[in-house]
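Input structure tokens:
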């Protein structure tokens, strides 16, 4: 795979859309890897800038960290209820089904690299 991926590049991994409680359960609560959850809106400028960054993060850290996205304009109300999302983009960091940190606003690719290295170090 090393030679092929160097010749053709690796497959792009896109954030997984989460719209229902069942999606949340499957892709966030029951995830075997830590999850970055992006709450976004299609009318939000910073959200549009963050989208390609999260695709790069999902691709670069595939198998180590999952990235999911919740479109606040089309997600089921039970996904938004009780999560205290007051602005977009809001990113939740979830491990073992439990939120342990959140940030709001645009963050550049380097921020994600540093955060993942700190919060989700590779196992030895």
């Amino acid at each position: 795979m090393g030679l092929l991926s160097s010749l053709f590049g690796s497959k792009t991994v896109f954030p997984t859309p989460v719209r229902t409680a069942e999606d949340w359960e499957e892709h966030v609560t029951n995830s075997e890897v830590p999850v970055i959850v992006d709450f976004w809106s299609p009318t939000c400028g910073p959200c549009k800038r963050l989208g390609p960054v999260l695709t790069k993060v999902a691709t670069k850290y595939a198998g180590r960290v999952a990235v999911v996205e919740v479109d606040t304009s089309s997600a089921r109300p039970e996904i938004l209820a009780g999560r205290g999302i007051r602005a977009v983009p809001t990113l939740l960091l979830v491990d073992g089904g439990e939120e342990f940190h959140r940030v709001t606003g645009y963050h550049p690719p380097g921020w994600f690299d540093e955060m993942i290295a700190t919060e989700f170090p590779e196992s030895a």
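Residues 21 and 79 are 6 Å apart (CA to CA). Residues 11-119 form a domain with the Glutaredoxin fold (CATH 3.40.30.10).
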